[in-house]
Structures are given as C-alpha cells and as structure tokens.
Amino acid sequence: MQKFKKVAVVTGSNKGIGFAIVKSLARKFNGIVYLTARNESLGIKAVKNLQDEGISVNFHQLDIEDSHSIERFSHYLKEKYDGLDVLINNAAIAYHHRENDFTPEIDQVINTIRVNFSSTLNLCNALFPLLRPNARVVNVSSRAGFLSNIKDQNLIDRILSKKFSIEESIQLMDEYIQLAKSGQHKNLTSNCYAMSKIGLNLLTEAQQILFDNDERKNIVVNSCTPGYCATDMTSYTGPLTPEEGAKTPVFLALLPENYDSFKGKFWADEQC
Fold first, then answer.
1. One of 34, 81, 176, 193 is an active-site residue; which one?
2. pTM of the predicted model, to two decimals?
3. pLDDT tens across 60-69, in order?
4. How many domains does the chain have?
5. 208: domain CATH number?
C-alpha cells in the first residue's frame, strides 16, 4: 500500500465533460486523479493526451454497468490506497439528442435509468466504504432533474411531502420503468433522461442523510448541472464548452475541509 495520498476518481472521463473535469481537477487537486473509461484503449489515449500537455493523471478501466469491473476497481483502490477522497459520478447516457436512433422507446427507458441511476448507485455502494473523512462526492446531474419537469402533480406532491430514502428512490425508478412498459411514462415526464436525473437528485439527498449520521466526519455529497455543453451527448448543440461545464463539478469536489453549508443539494454555476 502506498503512503497516504489523496485520491480522486472521475467516471466516464475519457472524453467530453468528464475529460475536462479530470484536466481541471488534476491542476488543482493535491493528490492523484484517476481518469476512468469503459474502453481501456480510449482511456489510455486520453491519459496520453493529458500527459502531452504536462498534466499527470492515472488510468483505470471502469464500466459502471459491469459489477465485475466495479469490484476490480474497488479492490484496486482498497489495496493500493486504502481510501478515496473524491468521487465524481459523471458517466451517463442520453438518447433524446440522437438523430436517427431507432432504439425502441422501452429500451431507451430501461437503459437510461440503468446507467444514469442504478449503475451510479451500484458504484457508490462499492466505493462509499472507502471514503475518508472530509471526502467529497459529486453526482453530475442536469436541470432536467428539476421537479418542474414532472407533469404529474401527484408525483410532485409525493416527492415534496418527505425526504426520499435510497430505497424509495429506487422504487420510483422501478415504477417509471413499469409505466413505460404500458406506454404511460410520458404522463410523468417528457423523456427518460429527465426522470433518471430526478432520481439522481433524490438519491443525492438520501445519501447525504446517511453521511450526516456516519462516524466519518464531514463527508459531503452534492449534485450539479454542468450546463448545456457541446459534447457528443448533446450532438454538439450546447452553447457551453466542456471546460465551462467542468467548473461546478470541480468546485464541489474541492470544497474545503471546514465546509459546513449546503449538503445534499443541487448546484449550478458554483451556486446552490
């Protein structure tokens, strides 16, 4: 095991906003930054591109949809560092910007909820035991996750009536998938990406409640929007650059150790 060093991990970071987050974080973080990607060759290439700019980061293969990949990475971090200080959950998918995509709608719903919510939660479950005191977790979300994007007032009232637990957030995502099987899901939101981010924002609140009662002090989780960025996920239609999109996630990852303000909240433009 290496002598104690702070360690940061960014998921889905060989391109786009994730790559920009790694690049910015590596310049500011007093520790080791891991760029991760499903495709090992693409991840190594991304690391090489940063090295060519004089930026040093590490690489590890990570597919958040693959339980074995998650387990290998968790074991690696445990054995090598015995801890983790920053986790930025950036990996996600979106169908609603894709032109000429003939993926059946039910598959779009299942895949989007699985990657953006369930797989992110699975990774958190594996890596959260490694978080050290004062660790920071950032769930990269979207303004699509605002409750104003819900069409059903009963669902809005249900969400506002209490703090959702992790289990209740999972149940809501399952309910949405079941509605999609009968074509009723659009009565709730305009698209499944929005519902996945609603789920992620609810999950963030629930995770912070658990951390508030954790013996490890001052672990903070927040969600945020990077803004509408020009990446392949948006078919390069966004007005912001990935570098601009990286600002808020990196800001939240570097909240100071004595931070004692907004936790479990949604942030935009470095503000809650």
1. 193
2. 0.95
3. 999 999 999 9
4. 1
5. 3.40.50.720
